[in-house]
Amino acid sequence: MQQDLTSGPITRKLLGMAGFIGVGLVFQTAYFLVDLYFVASQGATAIAGVGLAGNVFFLAMAASQMVAVGGLSLIARSIGAKAFGDAERTYDQALWLSLLLAVVILVLGYGGSRAALSLIAADQATVDAGATYLAGFLPAVAIMFPSGVMVSALRAAGVVRAPMMIQMGTVMLNVVLAPMLVAGWLTGAPLGVFGAGLASSISALAGLIATIILFPRVQTIIKAPVALVRIDPAIWRRIVGIGLPSAGEFLLMFLTAGIVYSVIRHFGSEAQAGYGVGSRVMQAVFLPAMAVAFAVAPVAGQNFGAGRGDRVRRTVRDAAVISSGLMVVLTLLCQLRPEILVHPFAPDAEVVRIASTFLRIISLNFIATGLIFICSGTFQALGDTRPALIASASRLVTFGVPALWLSTQPWARLEHIWFASAASVAIHAVIALLFLRRELGRKLAGLTPPAQPEAAPA
After folding, report:
1. Other C-beta atoms lying within 10 Å of the C-beta of residue 446
2. Domain with 15 in it
3. Which of 143, 179, 239, 268 is deepest in the core (most CB within 10 A)?
């Protein structure tokens, strides 16, 4: 049920929310890993194609996060200020915006995905595999838009258990459907990589329906999960103003991944497959720290709206300590036995070697990555995500330029590109932390509780 995050022990609030958010993120990430697991039997080309298609998912996530982050920030601060009518109005407009963007992403995805994949794929077979997968997976991407707004609104209200349970159910459904559709278990009609994408889309639709049903039962602030009221351009501008820099962050992740695929294409499809597997496993490894960072936004956001600057600072401090501790453990795991993480998704020995080497090197920046996540969550809570975008953009210079240069050198190896990436993340973290120190000083100076809050809805 919904929670008041402006009182009680902050560490307990963070850990309580992060636990449920983390489980939900595990199951959300499992969508792609399940597909990757069953596609692995189709060979390295299929793995590389699905990995490339996953970067289109990053592009869609950019647009999705623009609405979800902007909505969460405004809703959480409204709840903290007890302005419940503002919270509901923001949610209604965010949902409208998400549906519009879902239609746009379907049109662009089906119309231009093959051309986009051909720019970075190692060969035509990889392009074909990626486009075929996306043909089945794009509906799941579109469904992510309204689902993301609903989950963000629930998270802003302190509701995390219900979304986690829904994620768990949809991934279990995907686990059942994927082998049936990919390999033709029971059906006798194998659909290959298209079946993997289709299984995710069917599961995502089931999750959306479940979220709509449960939405009014787990919180009382927003009365209707789907109430398409008249469009309010002023609220749209506020949502986009906060969320657009976060969208830019995901777009930069898309561009960075595209740079990697481009500069390693001459190493062959095994290199692209190894990077695809390694990067997806890395994202799964990041989930505990991401869960803590995702908890920062509603906890700090409600307290910022309530005028509790002291609790905002303690939220950031406690989250940074928790995240760093988790990342130390995960770094050790990737240093000692990375192959056990990648082997289930890459039966080919060369792909396993490349993915394991990638994880061993890139794990050197895990602690820095965790701190970047905490900074990003705090910027969302404060209602200004531009510093996160600026810090992320630094990687285009600190990684993009060296990586492109390395791709022209005959002596360069894959390991050199991975080390360049790790170094650029460390620089990214320093920039983000400097921005965080400045923003906390500016935003929390003279912060006081708002006067005459609304009564809480029954």
Report:
1. 7
2. 10-444
3. 239
